[in-house]
Amino acid sequence: MVGIIPTTHTHTSLNPPSSLQEAFKNLPTSLQHICGNIHFPQRDGEDILSQTLESMTLFGASDVSFRNGRGTHAWIISTG
């Protein structure tokens, strides 16, 4: 099911979050719940960003499962 979840933003372009973890913590609880357990990369993803800018390559994968009225999901972003 796809829908729109109303959000309120605590940051503006003049005051962006200082890390991925901070950005995640500032999401509404409903969006955090949809994301599930998040494992943040070392150094807040700076290595991934650096490699991506050098090679212009980024891979993403996801998996979803639904059975007996319950669902689960997982996703990953990687440089290769």
What is the H/E string? HHHEE
Helix content: 25-40%
Rg, alpha carbons? 15 Å
Task: Give the beta-strand count.
Answer: 2
What percent strand? Answer: 15-25%
Number of helices: 3
Our measurement of the CA-to-CA distance between the termini, rounded to an integer number of angstroms, reads: 31 Å
Biggest sheet, strands in spatial order?
1-2
Mean pLDDT: 76
Large-scale geometry:
flat
Structural class, from secondary structure content?
alpha+beta
Subunit arrangement of the protein: single chain
Largest sheet features: 2 strands, antiparallel
- Poorly predicted runs are none
Describe the structure.
With 80 residues, the protein is of the alpha+beta class. It has helices at residues 20-25, 29-35, 46-55, and strands at residues 59-67, 70-78. The longest helix has 10 residues, at 46-55. It is flat.
